[in-house]
Amino acid sequence: MTDPKSHSLIEDAQGLAFGATMAAFGIVILTHLGMITGQTAGLAVLISYATGLPFGWLFFAINIPFYWFGYRRMGLAFTIKTFLAVALLSALSALMPGWVDFSTLHPAFGAVLFGFVSGAALLAIFRHGASLGGIGILALYLQDRTGFRAGHTQLIFDAALFAIALTFLPWPTVAWSFLGAAVVNLVIAINHRRDRYIAT
């Protein structure tokens, strides 16, 4: 009998490819509108806006230190899958702006669309035993070592990120960004089954 919690190599490859592609599309929507998001993706976007450096390179580089935490807490398979998902997202986010263009995209709809697309991307990646790296991994590691709740670590990081964004982005843009981030979290909260799939 097939273990309902396991996936074949082909299933994992498809799931990670889908997740990374949808996540890259979400970043295209986000950066087209000049918005930000939370976690390491948001940090990479913010640094990209401030410096002009490409998001893909920044996202890949920022995640490098977090693989050790992922390996310590989640194991080698998780770390390899996460590395592949991050690398694919980084590459696609650099290429996709040449493949996709928007003539009209209202900020409110764009924020919600980003949330839906990114939420679906994260669900696929989580359900295939990986993540998009970063603060989520560190938060779980700190929770194991200190007892400080992972959700609180992520919340503190995101609050600081949005506060910094307010210093050089228009407040309506930050407000729409907050809507997008809220939709992502809502999609995950409603659809991610922690009793069956590994959460990060």
Description:
The protein is mainly α and 200 residues long. It has one domain (9-97, 104-191). 72% of the residues lie in helices and 0% in strands. It contains 9 helices and no strands. The chain has helices at 9-32, 39-51, 55-63, 66-74, 76-95, 107-127, 135-146, 150-165, 171-191. Helix 2 crosses helix 3 (55-63) and helix 4 runs antiparallel to helix 5 (76-95). It is globular. The two termini are 27 Å apart. The model has no long low-confidence stretch (mean pLDDT 84). It comes from Paragemmobacter ruber. The chain crosses the membrane at residues 15-35, 41-62, 74-96, 108-126, 147-168, 174-191. Keywords: Cell membrane, Membrane, Transmembrane, Transmembrane helix.
Strand content: under 5%
Shape: globular
What's the overall average pLDDT, rounded?
84
Give the total of beta strands.
Answer: 0
Element pattern in H and E: HHHHHHHHH
Helix coverage percent: over 70%
Structural class: mainly alpha
The radius of gyration over CA amounts to 16 Å
Query: Which stretches are poorly predicted, pLDDT < 50 over at least 5 residues?
Result: none
What distance lies between the first and last C-alpha atoms, to the nearest angstrom?
A: 27 Å
SSE layout:
Blueprint: H1 9-32, H2 39-51, H3 55-63, H4 66-74, H5 76-95, H6 107-127, H7 135-146, H8 150-165, H9 171-191
Helix pairs in contact: 1-5, 1-6, 2-3, 2-8, 3-5, 4-5, 4-7, 6-9, 7-8
Question: Can you give keywords for this protein?
Answer:
single chain, 200 residues, mainly alpha, 72% helix, globular, cell membrane
